[in-house]
UniProtKB/TrEMBL annotation:
GO terms for molecular function: methyltransferase activity. InterPro entries: SAM-dependent_MTases_sf (IPR029063). This is Methyltransferase, UbiE/COQ5 family protein. Transmembrane segments: none annotated. It comes from the Bacteria. One of its GO terms (biological process) is methylation.
Length: 204
């Protein structure tokens, strides 16, 4: 399998140009996320892509760190528009990054977990990286029942045409989050969508 940073470097321009498929659902997710935000929050977004979600959220919090594994993605993201003063882009792999426990009040992983080789590890680290009372916000494609995609995905991955995919079920998502010590507050799957939207809170 090709290195995932290289895969996303290759896909970055195409990804950035892709329009949001359902603006109403996107705005709904933004609204729910922002209902949990406070001006004193430090927020991390893992896999920030275009950075446009961060541009919407950053004015509502103290600091906003937009992290991505792909340097090409980050370069493209910086060109998408003005960057809020409290928002910074960071080139890093969250799983390997040196993140101190209790560093953030909210961590977002939007359309990310199903692209990771070990999402359970990532969610556990997210739980550790949150401060007590902090929030984890995720939107994750639930691919567990897509048997045909599971069959053909390895071929595309061999040539770097598509990224790694982890075939999670809805129960997998819930178990990972609870095993990380987080309590689920929002658990929704909009009609006609493959992605499960979850907001979970760290006790405290």
């Amino acid at each position: 399998m090709k290195d995932q940073a290289q895969v996303w470097d290759k896909l970055a321009k195409r990804y950035i140009k892709s329009p949001i498929s359902d603006l109403d659902t996107y705005e709904w997710k933004l609204g729910i996320t922002q209902s949990y935000m406070r001006p004193d929050m430090d927020v991390l977004e893992i896999g920030c892509g275009s950075g446009n979600t961060g541009r919407r959220h950053a004015p509502l919090v103290r600091s906003y760190t937009a992290m991505d594994i792909s340097s090409a993605m980050l370069e493209a993201a910086k060109e998408q528009g003005p960057i809020p003063d409290n928002m910074r882009f960071v080139h890093a792999d969250f799983d390997r990054a040196d993140v101190a426990p209790g560093s953030y009040d909210m961590i977002l992983a939007l359309s990310v977990l199903h692209l990771l080789p070990n999402p359970a590890f990532t969610v556990k680290k997210i739980g550790e990286s949150l401060r007590p009372g902090g929030y984890f916000v995720s939107s994750t494609a639930v691919l567990g029942n897509m048997k045909f995609l599971k069959l053909i995905a390895p071929l595309g991955q061999m040539f770097g045409a598509i990224p790694h995919l982890t075939f999670l079920s809805e129960d997998d998502m819930r178990h990972m989050i609870r095993d990380a010590g987080l309590d689920i507050a929002v658990d929704e799957r909009p009609e006609g969508h493959a992605a499960r939207f979850i907001v979970a809170k760290k006790p405290g």
